[in-house]
Amino acid sequence: MSAPRSVGSGSDEPTRSGAGEPADSSISSISSISASPEEAADALALVQLSGVIRDTFARVADRHDLTPVQGRMLCVLAERPHGMAELARLFGVGKANLTGLVDRAAQRGLVERALVPGDRRAVRVVLTDDGRRAALAFHRDVTGELTGLLAPLTPEARAGLRETAAVVARSAGAGAAGAPPPGC
Question: Where do the DSSP E strands lie in 12-89?
């Protein structure tokens, strides 16, 4: 029989006497495994920022009757048409998942599949006029909401944020060959 586990503490570690304390006090705090308080604070700041952006993106997508992935796909396609294999790679999904995403967008009249001249097997995904309008409206609203989040910052702080974000994105591989286009 295993040791009792704490309930609601977020820990999967066995507890002493079921009182909710971890059996090994060295893992009682996530900060105890960080290399430094600064690194922990940096990581937390990035996680919080990504959550704010993800939630904003989801809220705007919902207002436009889109999923966040559909919204991003429309923004990517607004830049230029893409082949199915390329879209699957950009979104990090299998072709079957991408096919479902494209099918649902096509059923709504937002995209259409077009043959690639000179390659009978290749198909590219193209925005329809309704899809282009939806992409532009979605992009406008996402940009507006995200820009609104920066209102408390000075122009200098905003410039610093852009520079810092670019450095972090580059260090994570964004902008390298094969990285997804910016989209929205």
Answer: 82-83
Matching residue, tokens 């809220």: 59
Asked if residue 79 has pLDDT above 80, the reply is yes
Q: Mapping DSSP to helix (H, G, I), strand (E, B) and coil, where does residue 83 land?
A: strand
Nearest in space to 171 (alpha carbons), one of 42, 14, 38, 59: 42
9, amino acid identity: S
Of 144, 4, 177, 119, which is closest to residue 60 (Cα–Cα)? Answer: 144
pLDDT band at 16 (very low <50, low <70, confident <90, very high): very low
Q: Are the CB atoms for 135 and 74 separated by under 8 Å?
A: yes
How many DSSP H helices and E strands does the chain contain?
Answer: 6, 3
> Up-side HSE of residue 171: CA atoms within 13 Å toward CB?
6
Structural tokens at position 18: 């079921």
Q: What is the mean pLDDT of residues 133-153?
A: 96
The alpha carbon torsion through 45, 51, 56, 57 (nearest 10 deg) reads 120
Distance CA(117)–CA(119), nearest Å, equals: 6
Residue 179 in this model has a pLDDT that exceeds 60: no
